[in-house]
Protein 1
Amino acid sequence: MGQRNDALTAARRRLEALQMRFTPARRSVVEILETSPGPQSAADLIVAVEGAVPISSLYRTLSVLEDSEVIVRFPDPNGVARYELAEWLTGHHHHMTCIVCGATSDVPVPKDLETAVDNIVAEVGRRFDFQVAGHRLDLQGVCAQCR
Amino acid sequence: MGQRNDALTAARRRLEALQMRFTPARRSVVEILETSPGPQSAADLIVAVEGAVPISSLYRTLSVLEDSEVIVRFPDPNGVARYELAEWLTGHHHHMTCIVCGATSDVPVPKDLETAVDNIVAEVGRRFDFQVAGHRLDLQGVCAQCR
DNA sequence: AGAGAAATGAGAATGGTTCTCATTCGCTTT
DNA sequence: AAAGCGAATGAGAACCATTCTCATTTCTCT
């Protein structure tokens, strides 16, 4: 199965299904996120689009994509928002943040380990009477480059 | 072992070791965090101290306590900073955030499960050449009250 | 070509957090 | 007890990321 344009196509379909337009700005953001090694901030994206999208429009683009569940937003360790493609487009994964350089990158946790995480999470939910809908696991440490 | 004032005493000692004063504002914050069921925001703390500490002082107090590693700060799902006692004072734990009411509470993951998490985290670090220093596991779901 | 809905761009406004600076506090030394 | 002095405080300004407003522009469908 071809993967190069899957996210782009899926995003277009999703937006069209909601009768929204797949405009150049929306397309650019999806394209950039598709090829990024980790979640990007609004500031990162402004740089990536080379200023072609004004800030106010970029934020609006991001919130449209978030509302349509093409991307997800979450705060990085400093509280600034970072965005990445939703998991139905990229698969489930976690993050590791280098405490030296600050970079956050994706970690596609191997299936065997992810299964173990799922079991733990489910068990915790059971023990604490909490109906678990999802989880986030973030590793903090030092990346290979910074060593 | 008495636990009621352990955090307070430990915090005092830590600050004094750094030749800083254990002032009323600093004491209040530690006290409040010690008795809170989960991480608190600056706004929460202002309410908890009943306005006795002005905002600018509260933030300064928080950063002093953070710098001296008595508390830790991290962003909640909306990006606003939340604070809790450092793990050397409370023990390792995780969080669960209710996607209905937004409350975040502590989850003292049972030792057996935590061991499993540790193993997974270590294994991921090994596989991805990442020197793991710590981890955060956040559950999202619906709490008992909201069901 | 024209109408109407959707999207855009510029800038103002907001909210959380940090900074500045003059004042006050609390030890320590007389 | 008073002076000296660094630490801490309080008020408000400043900052920065993000959101909002609104007039203008662009699509899409006739």
Protein 2
Amino acid sequence: MPLYFQVATRLQELIEKGEIGVGARIENEVDLAERLGVSRPTTRRAIQYLVERGMLVRKRGVGTQVVHPKVRRPVELSSLYDDLVAGDRAPRTEVLRLEVMPASDTVATALEIAPGTPVTWIERLRYAGGEPLALMHNAIPLDVLPLTGDDLAGHGLYELLRSGGLTPRIATQVIGARSATSAEAKVLQEKRGASLLTMTRTAWDAGGRALEYGSHVYRASRYSFEINLSAG
Amino acid sequence: MPLYFQVATRLQELIEKGEIGVGARIENEVDLAERLGVSRPTTRRAIQYLVERGMLVRKRGVGTQVVHPKVRRPVELSSLYDDLVAGDRAPRTEVLRLEVMPASDTVATALEIAPGTPVTWIERLRYAGGEPLALMHNAIPLDVLPLTGDDLAGHGLYELLRSGGLTPRIATQVIGARSATSAEAKVLQEKRGASLLTMTRTAWDAGGRALEYGSHVYRASRYSFEINLSAG
DNA sequence: TACCTCAGTTTGTCATGACAAAGTATTGAC
DNA sequence: GTCAATACTTTGTCATGACAAACTGAGGTA
């Protein structure tokens, strides 16, 4: 574990425990570095890390203050399944459809591939706490990762991508809303015309290769997106 | 202008012009630093800046590659008004209500202030391209900034905050959806029961002071949120 | 041919030193 | 007493040097 990360972790613990209160200034960089026996760049990097997470704020000529005792995590590239597991909401997945088919224009445009390129097309129904929560559609280029229904029933898509050595690094999401169609209302156990949250996402790996396109609808009555922002 | 920023800007221009294509590797840090006559930390910092914006990806032992020719801006702490101005969509604001009143429990909890603390409560109708787009409710603690209706008609709320010396640094947003009430449908020129996007946001300044609470509804037929993420 | 080892390349981490810029507090003059 | 100039504190930027860790590819061996 890098030294700067150890320092950041120690600072974070002090703040979370309340030993350095909100609004209080932390020790200046030079003294802190000396006391911990590390160099100032290392100390700066540790502080920078916490600043980026929204815990600290720096002011030249003034010092570094605590602004929030909890880490505000940046929006993460995780899948719904991961979020639900983390939230202890007992997710279950029903795979409604899984087949290899040529990419439609919509999918091809989103993934920046040629129309007709074979992709794995997946339709899943995601349950949480025994109730349906979301209807999910995904397209994964066949040459990126072959998938089976068994995998998908018990794991999140992003988990499968990662175990296949594929790491999503960049994604574009569009969040909107619309009314449920009859078919959607039926599988989601909502009334016809109920409001749904929609989210489409395209994710790329470090090499700029498109990994996944997703077009999902969530029951607005049971789900919302939470986003924490921090401006540098 | 800092040296590392000048280097980053030069690199960015090269990539945006396409002189360094997507997938291509850029010069290694040591050589680049020497050629530009700067130190390696400065070069690293410039590259780091572009990595954080999603243009470049680094791999130890391999090099630094271009993954996207355009900067993927992080989600910014801007207001809808600013977004619309930037998108050339001719925003107009109608102030429906503006009064000082004691904070409700909901508002007080969001702003982390005592219930009953005086806040300015604002209801606005935002138009874009001549059509209503969003119904916006805001609460600003009175001791943060006094506001008048004239200000709000011609400027975004965040613009006013900034001109008052208040800089939002951290915000939490929750995005959801629901059906329009009759009153909402009427002012937004939607049918009753139409799907609306909802967004609530609380913004804090660098000192951890809550600046603003907002609870807005957008016509889902005319608006959606776009979010770009980059991990790691 | 297939696999392993090892050298080379490139980024990751860390230390030390120095000066600049911005904000705060003190001191002095009027 | 008030205001302005000055000194001090603290973060921001930059240079130099060094070693570590991860990946690549060539070469040797079974």
